Amino acid sequence: MQVGVSGALAPAFRLADSTVRFFFARRCLTSHLSAGDVAIQDATKRIRVNRQIRISPVRVIGHDGSQLGIMEVDKAMALAEEHGLDLVEVAPTARPPVVRVMDFGKFKFEQAKQARIAKKKQHVIQLKEVKYRPGIDDHDFDTKTRHARRFLEEKNKVKVTLMFRGRQIAHPELGVAVVERVATELADVAKIESAAKMEGKQLTMILAPK
After folding, report:
1. 20 to 30 Å CA-CA from 121: which of 6, 53, 139, 186?
2. Which residues, listed in sequence order, are joined to residue 193 by a DSSP beta bridge?
3. CA–CA separation, 210 vs 207, rounded Å?
4. For residue 32, what are the domain limits?
5. Which residues contact 193 (CB under 8 A, 6 or more apart)?
6. Does residue 147 sit in the same domain as residue 108?
7. CB of 107 within 8 A of CB of 32?
8. Residues contacting 30, CB < 8 A, separation 6+
9. Does residue 21 surpass a pLDDT of 70?
10. What is the DSSP string of 59-126?
11. How confident is the model at residue 34 (pLDDT cuts 50, 70, 90)?
12. CB 207 within 8 A of CB 157
């Protein structure tokens, strides 16, 4: 048998049944809460806000991070409304569930802002090439190696290329000595990802940042 919903209660039921899905990382939520707060236990689940929270009683955290204790959900809701804020369920599987008084709209805005900043800070590893020659003088060697060090410190990989000209190819040991010297000079910031090998008239080696 179906039970009807009175006109007065219909808006509340519609609000309770509406689906509000917000996906965000556990770490982001934890950074927003104070040390005494409880992070959302499953960030992929629906976050209940205000009248969507139907389990009572609840453990309440104030907007300033203070522990307000266990109370009926209606009282917690009234407290949030008194401060012009929202009541947000942050640990639904706890017993009793944990809720926090906060500005949920502002919280979502800050999360989106942090996500944009994090995306900008993401580093795409690039392969930078630094070219040497057999018999390179110390000044040029030092200059090129400084460039390689900067690339590695920026967390990029470095392709060390030793180019042979003419009859220089008959003495590959000279090129090997140069790339080995490069590896030794950069040993504090780099590791050899790909050992030196001949590619036509070039000797190449790949260094990766430590």
Report:
1. 186
2. none
3. 9
4. 10-120
5. 157, 206, 207, 208
6. no
7. yes
8. 37, 39
9. no
10. EEE-TTS-EEEEE-HHHHHHHHHHTT-EEEEEETTSSS-EEEEE-HHHHHHHHHHHHHHHHHH-----
11. very low
12. yes
Q: Are 73 and 56 in contact (CB under 8 A)?
A: yes
Please name the residues in contact with 58: beta carbons below 8 A apart, sequence gap of 6 or more: 70, 71, 72, 73, 76, 89, 96, 97, 98, 99
Q: Report yes or no on whether pTM surpasses 0.85.
A: no
Whether residues 77 and 131 fall in one domain: no
Residue 1 belongs to a domain? no
Kindly report, residue by residue over 141-185, the tens digit of the pLDDT: 999 999 999 999 999 999 999 999 888 888 889 999 999 999 999
Helix and strand numbers (H, E) in the chain are: 6, 8
- Highest mean pLDDT of the ranges 13-17, 27-31, 145-149, 199-203: 145-149
CB atoms within 10 A of CB 192: 16
CA distance 152 to 129: 11
Spatial separation of the C-alpha atoms in residues 207 and 192, rounded to whole Å? 5
